[in-house]
């Protein structure tokens, strides 16, 4: 029988490491990038094409799915996997980040967060217990604890109080998850480290999470406007504060050079809307940096987006055609650039896994930055 959750590190090179997470719906190769399927869809992509690009796991959004179509309806329809025809692992976030971003529409108490729906203004209470229930109804494979993600520019005492409440919520999330019967027996629960940019606060958070015990640990509260330099400075210590025998997940990151720098610092898992959102807005990622496909210089260029890319888009279409589609507002342009970007991200992850296994990750990272940042 396939394991509920098992993480094995196969090779390490400095802090960077590569391995496999084994779950009942399949294996997840790490470092892993999870395409974001906010509303039960990776935008502009069919599930089979997301898998063909190399994704082992995708992310679903608790906040959006609880509002539409609704968690209880989703359960009646067989759960998120059946609903969207994705038969591999799905990680669902807790809904906390989206609720916290509704600063004018929510009220935080020790119990949880009361908020108004951005769709119709209806009032909802999201607690650690309700978040666990929603994710159970969705049927996710990796469940995230409910936490608060405060603004990075808050005073230290505010960050500390928020982190301490998130740790209490983590314990409540653990208890509610464990009470989930069959779902708890077949899925995993991740805790989320908080503490903004403060090393001592993050250590306190990491110790509290390890005391509770989780299958994996996320680094939350980054990629929220602090900039790459501050993010990397935090990642110089934050991953090492978390248990080494569990996967480390950096939430909401990021640009290709963010991913390389974070893997360099010991991170195993990522998610971000960037490859899909950028594709819908005419931006293509390449080994030599991002391209704006609206730019007139592509109008008569028959070369592929990236000659080094193995994706079906680069094998079939030239820049001139993609430029035409984007400038014309044709939906096919957004679809093709999204497909290319997802393939690029997965090829980047595979290249990092290969470099770590071969003991040459430092050279790979330096070469990548040289080529990518020269644009």
Number of helices: 16
Write out the strand line-up for the largest beta sheet, numbering strands in chain order.
4-5-6-10-11-12-13-14
Gyration radius, in Å:
20 Å
Q: Kindly, what is the distance between the CA atoms of the first and last residues, rounded to a whole number of angstroms?
A: 48 Å
Amount of helix: 40-55%
Molecular shape: globular
Description:
By secondary structure, this protein is an alpha/beta fold. It has a single domain, classed as TIM Barrel (Alpha-Beta Barrel), CATH 3.20.20.105. The chain has helices spanning 47-52, 62-67, 71-76, 80-84, 96-101, 128-138, 156-178, 182-186, 199-212, 228-235, 256-264, 274-280, 312-316, 319-327, 331-357, 361-374, and strands spanning 6-13, 16-23, 26-30, 32-37, 58-60, 90-92, 106-108, 113-116, 123-126, 142-144, 188-193, 216-219, 248-250, 269-272, 283-284, 291-292. Strands 4-5-6-10-11-12-13-14 form an eight-stranded parallel β-barrel, surrounded by five helices. Helix 6 (128-138) packs across helix 7 (156-178) and helix 11 (256-264) packs antiparallel against helix 16. The mean pLDDT is 96.
Question: How are the SSEs ordered, and which strands pair?
Answer:
Elements (H helix, E strand, L loop, with lengths): L5 E8 L2 E8 L2 E5 L1 E6 L9 H6 L5 E3 L1 H6 L3 H6 L3 H5 L5 E3 L3 H6 L4 E3 L4 E4 L6 E4 L1 H11 L3 E3 L11 H23 L3 H5 L1 E6 L5 H14 L3 E4 L8 H8 L12 E3 L5 H9 L4 E4 L1 H7 L2 E2 L6 E2 L19 H5 L2 H9 L3 H27 L3 H14 L1
Parallel strand pairs: 4-5, 4-14, 5-6, 6-10, 10-11, 11-12, 12-13, 13-14
Antiparallel strand pairs: 1-2, 2-3, 7-8, 8-9, 15-16
Helix pairs in contact: 6-7, 7-9, 11-16, 12-15, 14-15, 15-16
């Amino acid at each position: 029988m396939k394991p509920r959750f098992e993480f094995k590190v196969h090779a390490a090179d400095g802090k960077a490491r590569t391995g496999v997470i084994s779950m009942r719906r399949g294996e997840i190769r790490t470092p892993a990038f999870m395409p974001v399927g906010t509303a039960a869809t990776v935008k502009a992509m069919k599930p089979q094409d997301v898998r063909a690009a190399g994704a082992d796991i995708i992310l679903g959004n608790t906040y959006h799915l609880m509002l539409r179509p609704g968690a209880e309806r989703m359960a009646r329809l067989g759960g998120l996997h059946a609903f969207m025809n994705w038969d591999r692992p799905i990680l669902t976030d807790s809904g906390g980040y989206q609720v916290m971003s509704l600063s004018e529409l929510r009220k935080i108490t020790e119990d949880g967060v009361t908020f108004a729906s951005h769709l119709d203004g209806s009032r909802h209470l999201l607690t650690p217990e309700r978040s666990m229930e929603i994710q159970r109804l969705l049927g996710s494979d990796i469940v995230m604890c409910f936490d608060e993600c405060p603004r990075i520019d808050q005073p230290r005492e505010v960050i500390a109080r928020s982190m301490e409440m998130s740790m209490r919520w983590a314990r409540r999330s653990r208890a509610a998850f464990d009470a989930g019967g069959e779902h708890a027996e077949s899925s995993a629960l991740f805790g989320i480290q908080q503490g903004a940019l403060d090393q001592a606060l993050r250590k306190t958070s990491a110790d509290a999470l390890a005391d509770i015990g989780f299958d994996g640990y996320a680094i939350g509260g980054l990629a929220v406007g602090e900039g790459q330099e501050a993010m990397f400075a935090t990642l110089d210590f934050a991953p090492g504060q978390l248990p080494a025998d569990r996967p480390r997940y950096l939430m909401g990151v990021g640009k290709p050079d963010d991913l390389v720098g974070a893997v360099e610092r010991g991170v195993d898992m990522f998610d971000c809307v960037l490859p899909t959102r950028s594709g819908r807005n005419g931006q293509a990622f390449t080994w030599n940096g991002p391209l704006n496909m609206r730019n007139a210089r592509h109008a008569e260029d028959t070369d592929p987006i990236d000659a080094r890319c193995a994706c079906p888009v680069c094998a079939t279409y030239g820049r001139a055609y993609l430029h035409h589609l984007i400038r014309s507002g044709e939906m096919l342009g957004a679809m093709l650039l999204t497909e290319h970007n997802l393939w690029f991200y997965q090829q980047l992850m595979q290249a990092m896994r290969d470099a770590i296994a071969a003991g040459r990750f430092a050279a790979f990272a330096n070469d990548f930055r040289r080529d990518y940042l020269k644009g």
